[in-house]
Structures are given as structure tokens and as C-alpha cells.
Amino acid sequence: MNAQAQPAQKPVHPPFGSVLTDTMAVATYKDGKWSPYEVRRTGPIEMSPAAHVLHYSSTCFEGFKAYRWADGSVNVFRMGRHIERMLQSARALALAEPDARQLEEMIVTVIDRVRDQVPEAPGALYLRPILFGTTPNIGAAASPPGELMLIVLASPVWDYFAGGMKALKIYVETRATRCASHLGVVKTGGNYAAAMGPTLAAKKQYGVDQVLFCPGGEVQETGAANFLLIREGKILTRSLDTTFLHGVTRDSLLKMAPSLGYEVEERVFTVGEMLEWARDGEAALSGTAAVLAGVGTLVHEGREVKVGSGDVGPHTKKLRAALVAVQQGEARDPHHWLRRI
Ligand SMILES: Cc1ncc(COP(=O)(O)O)c(C=O)c1O
After folding, report:
1. Do 188 and 137 share a domain, yes or no?
2. What residues contact residue 326 under an 8 Å CB cut-off, 6+ apart?
3. What is the pLDDT of residues 128-141, one digit of tens each?
4. Which end of the chain has fewer CB atoms surrounding its CB within 10 Å, N or C?
């Protein structure tokens, strides 16, 4: 066959999170203080098998992105808010708080060093700071670690919707909880471990993409994203409490909503209300990875319920496009969410 007659091949990119950049920043905490940070080649770290985190899950993390704009510059989105959430998580887990200024410097330094590895839009550089207890003591179940490590990793990520923006199928879980009710607000590994069992079971039984946790019939969030109901002129989402993660994407969409013609209502709502809304409204998941992903089907008590038309709805697409335009530097940034590195 003539080579020119072959259809253009789309590049196949590695899955989200499977590749790290070659540079990371590392700081340690000991004797009540943080060390200066070091910039290192990304690679294995050494710690005791008795390290506190390996036994008692003394850890928290963050996840956010820096974007390469059309002019070639690299711009990080709401870094300050993510640092604040990381400190909140550390406090909730009785871990020594990183110094916010130092953490910011670590993040900025990593982005700067790896700027050549930041993919073009719709790709991005995903930043992943992690904090964990390294104290070697397997008897310290009831005391926080006095030694910790803070690492900033970066990962080039490509288009989340490479296969097209397909509406998601979500299982409505009314019995199992995602995590302890006071820890939903904390971004800690244990929460993801707790959600794993119910999520795998629902995927196996119903072929769903995600599980929407609704303990006691109140809608909370999925394993890794917040949940929004959307319709003409209106967004409804759960009001902030300790049971779920206060997503920065959620907050950004809600702050943009009025100027896009949507009134925002934040309150507790039930599965019944959500099913009613699904008759002619839209539902979507918000988070750093996917921005805003449409839900096409809810699986409730073994029955499939279509959300609106069953496809990604026009309001979901409009809100998503508006936020992506800000992140990519194609629209004004009135809230000063982006910082050029
Ligand atoms: C449990 C959970 N909820 C919500 C979100 C969305 O948060 P954000 O918009 O800050 O990425 C995430 C992703 O980080 C998450 O893991």
C-alpha cells in the first residue's frame, strides 16, 4: 500500500500517572524541624520496613496540574489552594505540617526543571506532592510519626479523553461508605484503599466506571471526583462538610458558574432527588484529571437509569470548555488562578 494513503496514526500515550519526570524535590522532618529541600533524580528512596506510613498509613498527598499554553509558557493552576489543602490534610492526620513557602518553592523548582517534559494541550504536567511518616517504630500505632518525608513528584499526562468524551456509567452505592465520615475531607491513601473493595465489586457486577457513594441515601462523591447535578441555569451539589473531599475543580466551576448563567445551590440532597433530576437534567463528575465528565447512566438497586439523553449534556460540555479555556490561557483569568512558572 502507498504509505501516503494510510490514515494518520494518533500517537498512543502512556496511561495517566504511569510516567514520572526525571526530577523530584525531597525534604525531611526530624527533631521538630524541616530540612532544606534537595532536588534529586527521580528514583527509589530508602526507608525502614518499620516506617510508620507502611503500618499506620500516616500519609497525605495532593494532585494538580501545570499547563503548557500556546505561547509555550508553563502555568500552574491554583497551586496555593492545593498547598492549603495539603496542610489541612496533614493537620487532620496529626502529621507535621510542611512549611507552605518551602513546599511552594519545591513545586515551582520541579516545574521549572522539567518544563521541557510538559506535554502540549490537551496534555499537562500533573504535580503530586506526598507527605509520609518514616519513623521506624512498629509500636507507634497511637502516636504520630516524629520523622517524615515530603516529596514533590511530577508526571506528564496526556489527553484524558483520548477515546472521545464518553458518558460515564455510575453505580449508586447507598450502604458502603467511601471512608470514615470525618476523613472524607482529607486526601489520604487510606480513603482510596477503603473505596477499592466496593468499587471493584460494582465494576465486576454492573460494568460501571465509578461508584457514587451515598451512605444513608445522601449523595456524597465518587472514589476520585466530586458530583454535580446540572441543568439550564442551575447547578446543585452537596454543601461542604467533612464527609467528602473539597475539590478545587468543584470550587472553580462554582465560582465561574454565575458569569456563565448558572445559579449555584449547595446543600445535602438525596438519591431520590438525584433520580428525579436525571429525568431531564445532567450529572457530571469534577476533578483535576477529567475536569468535568458527563454521567450518562446511574445504576440504582440493580436498575439502569438514564441521565437526560444518556450522552454528555450541553451544559456539562459548556462548563467544561469554559474552565479548560481558563486553564489553557485562552480565556481571561479574573480570579488569578494561574501562575506562570
Ligand atoms: C475523592 C476525591 N474527590 C474529589 C476530587 C476532586 O478534587 P480536585 O478537583 O481538587 O482534583 C478528587 C481528586 O483529587 C478525589 O480524589
Report:
1. no
2. 252, 256, 332, 333, 337, 338
3. 999 999 999 999 99
4. N
Minimum-distance ligand 1 atom for the alpha carbon of 195? 1
Question: Is 321 part of a structural domain of the chain?
Answer: yes
User: In this structure, is residue 15 part of a structural domain?
Assistant: no
- Let me know whether 69 and 104 are in one domain: yes
Protein residues with CB under 6 Å of any ligand 1 atom: 63, 221, 224-226, 245, 247-250, 286-288
Q: Are residues 102 and 198 in the same domain?
A: no
Specify the ligand 1 atom closest to the Cα of 252: 9
Task: State the distance from the centre of ligand 1 to the C-alpha of 224, rounded, in angstroms.
Answer: 5
Tell me the best of 178, 226, 254 to mutate to test the pocket of ligand 1, counting ligand atoms within 8 Å of each CB and taking the most.
Answer: 226
**Cβ contact 226:251 at 8 Å:** no
Task: At 221, list the grid cell.
Answer: 462523591
- Testing ligand 1's pocket by substitution, the residue of 173, 191, 227, 288 carrying the most ligand atoms inside 8 A of its CB is 288
% the chain with pLDDT above 90 = 91
Same domain, 172 and 290: yes
240-to-27, 266, 288, 296, 320 alpha-carbon distances in Å: 32, 8, 18, 25, 21
- Per the structure, the complete domain to which residue 183 belongs is given by 168-327
Q: Which atom of ligand 1 is the closest one to the Cα of 64? A: 11
pLDDT digits (tens, 9 = 90+) for 97-109: 999 999 999 999 9
Q: How many structural domains compose the chain?
A: 2
